[in-house]
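Task 17 of the worksheet. Students: predict the tertiary structure of the chain below and write it out as structure tokens. Keep your answer in the requested format; marks are given for formatting as well as content.
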Amino acid sequence: MTPQSRLRGALDLLKSIRRPSPLVTIELDKNTYGLENTYTTFGRIQGMVIITVDSETPLENISITFEGTARVSIERESWTLGNTEATQTFLQLKQPVTLGIESVPKILQPGCSYRLPFTFVVPQYLPCQSCNHNVNCSDLKQAHLQLPPTLDDPKLENGKRPTLDYVSSGKCHISYRVRVVLSKDSMPGSRRPSRPVDCVKSVRVLPTSVHTPRSGLPMLGSDIYTRTEQNLSLGFAHPGLGELITEASHIPPISLQSPFDNHGVHTAVRLNLRFNPVMDAAPPQLKKASAKLQVATFYSPVPWEDYPSWTDRGLANGWDRAAFTDTFPIMAFSMGSVQWVKHQEIGDEHGIQGQDGQSLSDHTAPCNDSRSYYTASIVLPIVLPPRMTLIPTFHSCLISRTYSVNLRLSFHTPKTALQTASTTIKVPLMLQYASNNHHTSLDYEESDASDSTVMNSLPPPKYTATV
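Model answer:
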């Protein structure tokens, strides 16, 4: 190679290095969800990509995608093992862009502003290949294929808070973004490939929940218990007073209209009590009931094969499982006016009907000869903290968010006015966002002409889903 050719190559390389990259800006249209850059199921993410250059720039490809990504980091206690991290891109919707047309030429000219509109529709479900690991039940597979909400995205800010969610661990994130990648052609005579231009715009996704687990949320594991059996006594070496059975009713899912719609949102839980006395022992004197909302986030770099639980072995040893939890008081109720009702044993083999027709599950027979027992029923209001913003319950391959109501019932045992005992029940709670659209994915296919006219007024682009 002659010195002149070497000098020419060096000058071309210097020009390519000093040549400014194209300036890419992503502008989002205003949405109607009530929070900036926030979208829900079937919501349209619309906007414009604006590209400007300072010199002639040949393009090879333009990619506009909508992506969803989960990131997890597990800290190991031993410094020799280091941290374990995992990243999963569970959603990628692509909008095709064809070069060579009038709006996007193959060579961008300086002084021109190229504007590319885009539209993405937030899907209800993920592609089947997003969850390609083993699961212990088909119900969990369905949960993993439902779109998870944004969780602790560091690139989103809500005032002074880095996250919308009230509870943040900082070790797991679920983020959504509109991404634009420009691939430039290499300059003639240059051996170095041109670096692509990558621009992203983060958005918040709060999908409506449609997945309801079978038979009363059994997926939360053995750490959830809605029934307790407790033997009461006067103390060590004293005869037992009897058995106290406490059972809580199922709490229906709570639907919120928006992240800030906690005002006035409430439900109730019924406590059915039964006391099987020994001899002629009197039932305990009920004192107080209190409730706390427990918020738990489970995460792992290894996909969950079952619903997460505090009894999981991997969570206990901290090897490839972790969890973050917090509790908030939501209710305190005095029960001094609650009275016990005495009954005689009916002898029904399928259970005993308590007060107000409420049935307690199978139990052991009373120990006294008269076969009498006592029942009481309490309805406790459950009101969400009005100043809290909470994301919906969800289960994804790497991250899950669960809620439960921890009820504590305190009482005095008979003949010991100063001795206070208590029993605790943990009831699962599901939070979800109510749909602001009266249609479902099946309704779109079966809607009449008037509905289809509205839906097709701005059709979504032909994008493909890849993982």
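Marker's comment: Residues 214-220, 348-359, 361-369, 438-467 have pLDDT under 50 and may be disordered. Helices lie at 3-18, 138-144, 313-317, 441-446, 449-455.
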